[in-house]
C-alpha cells in the first residue's frame, strides 16, 4: 500500500508532508532547500506561470520570472476556487488584483457563472490552475519516497463551503490524486500536534481561530467541553463521540 501524502494548498505558499513513523515530516522541494533552513524555505509559492514557449512553471521558478512576465503569472488563485463570479468576495478581488489590467489576463465569468481566469484568450478554471501546484507537491513526495503517489489529504480553510471543498477535490483529481479527505487547516494542525499524545483539538470560533488541546476519555457518547468565552461570537464545536475536557490551549 502506497503512502498517503498531506498537502497544505495555501493561498500564498503550499507544502507537502508524510508520516515518518509517528511524526509528520514536511518535505523539501526540488529547489534544493534543506531541513537546516527556516521552515518557510520548505514551502513552495502557490504561483503558476505560462511562458512564451508554452512551458508551465510552478513555485520559485514562476515567482522569479514574475517581474518580466506579469501578465502570464497567476497567484492567489485559491481566492477564486469554487466561487461564483458575482460573489462579493470575487468582485472585491477583481477590483484590487492586477490581473484585469493586462490585455491577456483577467478574471472572467464562466458559462455556468463560476469565477474563471482568462490567459491569452484561453479560459481556465481555478481547479485546473491549482492542480499545477498539487502536481508539484505530488512530484516532490514521489522524488522523496521513490515510489508513485496516488492518494492525498488536502487541507482547506475552516470557512470553505461545500462548493470550494469540492473544487479543491477536483483540483486533486486533475493532478492525478485521489483525495481521501478534505480537512480544515486548524484541525489538521491540531491532529499533527496531538497524534502521539492521545489528545484532540478543535476550532472554537469562526471569527477567532482557536486551537484547543483536549483530553479524550472514551467513556460515553455524551459531550463535555469547557473553555473560557473570549467574545460574544464564541460558539463551541461539539464532538458527540467522546467525553472531552479542555486540558491545554496552544
Summary tags:
250 residues; three-stranded antiparallel sheet; ATP-dependent protein folding chaperone; disordered C terminus; six-stranded mixed sheet; alpha+beta; Nucleotidyltransferase, domain 5
Kindly describe this structure.
There is one protein chain. The chain has five helices and 15 strands. By secondary structure, the chain is of the alpha+beta class. The longest helix has 20 residues, at 126-145. The radius of gyration is 20 Å and the shape is globular.
Mean pLDDT: 77
Q: Which ranges are low-confidence, i.e. pLDDT below 50, for 5 or more consecutive residues?
A: 201-211, 213-250
Task: Please write the string of helix (H) and strand (E) elements.
Answer: EEEEEEHEHEEEHEHEHEEE
**Straight-line distance between termini:** 34 Å
Rg, please?
20 Å
Q: Give the tally of β-strands.
A: 15
What overall geometry do the principal axes of the alpha carbons give?
A: globular
CATH topology name of the domain at 4-46 and 128-184, in short, is Nucleotidyltransferase, domain 5
Look at the helices and sheets and give the structural class.
alpha+beta
What share of the residues does DSSP label as strand, in percent? 25-35%
CATH class of the domain at 4-46 and 128-184: Alpha Beta
Major sheet characteristics: 6 strands, mixed
Question: CATH H-level name of the domain at 4-46 and 128-184... which superfamily?
Answer: ATPase, nucleotide binding domain
CATH architecture of the domain at 4-46 and 128-184: 2-Layer Sandwich
- The number of distinct helices, counting runs of at least 4 residues, comes to 5
**Helix content estimate:** 10-25%
Protein name: Chaperone protein DnaK (Heat shock protein 70) (Heat shock 70 kDaprotein) (HSP70)
Family: Belongs to the heat shock protein 70 family.
GO molecular function, one term: ATP binding
Keywords: ATP-binding, Nucleotide-binding, Phosphoprotein, Stress response
Amino acid at each position: 500500500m502506497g503512502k498517503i501524502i498531506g498537502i497544505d494548498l495555501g493561498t500564498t505558499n503550499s507544502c507537502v508532508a508524510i508520516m515518518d513513523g509517528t511524526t509528520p515530516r514536511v518535505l523539501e522541494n526540488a529547489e534544493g532547500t534543506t531541513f537546516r533552513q527556516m521552515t518557510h524555505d520548505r514551502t513552495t509559492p502557490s504561483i503558476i506561470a505560462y511562458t512564451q514557449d508554452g512551458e508551465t512553471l510552478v513555485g520559485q521558478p514562476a515567482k522569479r520570472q514574475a517581474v518580466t512576465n506579469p501578465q502570464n503569472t497567476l497567484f492567489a488563485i485559491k481566492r477564486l476556487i469554487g466561487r461564483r463570479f458575482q460573489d462579493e468576495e470575487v468582485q472585491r478581488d477583481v477590483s484590487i488584483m492586477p490581473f484585469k489590467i493586462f490585455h491577456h489576463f483577467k478574471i472572467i465569468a464562466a458559462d455556468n457563472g463560476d469565477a474563471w481566469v482568462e490567459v491569452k484568450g484561453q479560459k481556465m478554471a481555478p481547479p485546473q490552475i491549482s492542480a499545477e501546484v498539487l502536481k508539484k507537491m505530488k512530484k516532490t513526495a514521489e522524488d522523496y519516497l521513490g515510489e508513485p503517489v496516488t492518494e492525498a489529504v488536502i487541507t482547506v480553510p475552516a470557512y470553505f463551503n461545500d462548493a470550494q471543498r469540492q473544487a479543491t477535490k477536483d483540483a486533486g483529481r486533475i493532478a492525478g490524486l485521489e483525495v481521501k479527505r478534505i480537512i480544515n487547516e486548524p484541525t489538521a494542525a491540531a491532529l499533527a500536534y496531538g497524534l502521539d499524545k492521545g489528545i484532540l483539538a478543535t476550532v472554537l470560533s469562526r471569527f477567532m481561530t482557536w486551537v484547543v488541546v483536549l483530553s479524550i476519555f472514551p467513556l460515553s457518547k455524551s459531550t463535555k467541553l469547557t473553555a473560557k468565552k473570549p467574545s460574544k461570537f464564541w460558539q463551541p464545536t461539539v464532538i458527540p463521540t467522546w467525553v472531552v475536557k479542555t486540558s491545554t490551549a496552544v
